[in-house]
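Record type: monomer structure entry
Structure origin: computed from sequence
Chain ID: A
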Amino acid sequence: MSTAKVNEKAHVEHHDHGQSPTASPTTSRADPSLENLTAANRKLDNPLRGIPRERLLSDVELFAEEKGLKDILLELRKGALVAQDPAAFESVDLLEENDKYHIRRETTHRYSQTWSLYYMVVMSSLAAAVQGMDESVINGAQIIYPEQFGIGGTSQRDSWLVGLVNSAPYLCCALIGCWITDPMNEALGRKKTIFVTCLISFLTCIWSAFTNTWWHLFIARFFLGFGIGPKSATVPIYSAECAPASIRGSLVMMWQMWTAFGIMIGDLIDVAFYFVPDHPHVTGLKWRLMLGSAGIPALIVCCQVMFAPESPRWLIGRGRYREAYNELARLRFSPVQAARDLYYIHVTLEAEKEIARGRNRLVEMFTVPRNRNATVASFIVMFGQQFCGVNVIAYYSSTVFFQSGFSRVSSLLSSFGFGLINFVFALPAVFTIDTFGRRNLLLFTFPWMAVCLLITGFSFWSTNPKGLVAGVSLGIYLFGIAYSPGEGPVPFTYSAEAFPLYIRELGMSFATATTWFFNFVLAITFPSLLNAFKPQGAFGFLCSLVLRALGACPAFLPMRTHAAYGLRQVPYGFKKFILRRKNVKPVRLYIDEDEGEVGETVGKQEIGNVDLGGRTKGESGLGDVEKRQMKEDQA
């Protein structure tokens, strides 16, 4: 009997309360009903929960024998018992004190991790910085190259062509790049996908520097999208699959933080290369160096990534269990932690396969309510991330500053100032995203972003040149302060968590395709929008879209119960944080079953496996630990 069947039998014996095993959603070969699918998805929260101890240890022994892991059988037994009930690890009799010490530190010292894990974090962060530089170097180049290519005028044709060249990578991402993420990951794995995409970024950046017509530059930048699209979906997934559950949310959102760092460096490079004079027989050397320089960090990632650990989850999915254990041993402090995660990933993947068997994942993204709500919510946050106007500022801030009266050098320096603010104020999100939650960050920052866009646009009505410059600068910089901890990191983190595991990679492809499509729409239309509506109308239009996204967040992200819960938090927040009262009790949404009541559950609200504080349930099997931590926080 296979390990999967043993697990399946044990699960049915414990949960069916006398029903035939064929009634279980995990054993039915027919296409299950929506009710059975919901039950099957809940099983993914922890497939080991409820299995009797002797049956679990027997399953582990069969697993070790089948996979050639008999030499670590004791560690696998310990790990399985810990994964079954993470909150009760102190009472597991097989654990030695050294084992308990390392497991305990996962919650008491979350950021004390292995060197290999932080090497992976650095590599992933640099890959994100590559993305940011790819996006921002065009900001400085596009105030220079249009004149050389004969598209620097104010006509509608020239505006559309400049927008087309600037937006070319994002057109490729939306139409092709993001949709090849799943097959690339299936064939190559996470590390090699990152290597290939960074190599493409390096080659296309160098190619862009040698172009001599606008259409040639368009083609080069279009192919850059093959480097940007799959990388933007793969790196957050790779980080999530390597990281321990206690810091998974923080590491996933670092993608956006280090993308902001890359944008800042790209703006700084624009300033540095602006002063490079042309050499004989070379026209436009400065903008060529700007575009080509973005390839250097991509080359560094190519040299670095092959030394990083591969995703254990991907290796297990290919039956390479010994390699997966070795990689987990590099990423964790103790063999018990590595064995625990190895076995837990294995049973989770088996449960996923059972759910996905005979299903069309693409169709079920839109036909199953649980999946459809995750899809709609991801669409909204990704739409909001683009049409809040942040990439208008990232790509065209130099043009906006120039039109407000800055010199070209001052415009580039001011753009660097925005990049610096964008990065600095993204740093607090590492800590706030798992404290205040995704939805609360969005609801708090959206109104300020709308106000800042109005300040920027309305400043162009000023008849005082100094007032115009001050108003535009203030509006753009305050916008960066509001955007960075909220709409900046939340969409990618939320999208990586919202989908059920069996369609997560496809869901992330959809989410990233969404953000790059609207990125393309914004980038190609903004020059014409600026000419037609003037800055006042252009920024006012973006403000209206921000307000629409603000209205959609409470309606679609947390559903009605969560929206009502948010309103009930207002008096509590006023008393605690404004009046500074210490004995105020917070409003409760989730109530543990062991407290005698069952509160609103994530499954009922159909918003993904994200709890009140934005923490991820499911893969980690640490839901109980996080509930206990929430109790301590509330106390």
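Annotation 1: The first helix runs from residue 3 to 15.
Annotation 2: Confidence is low (pLDDT under 50) at residues 1-33, 590-635.
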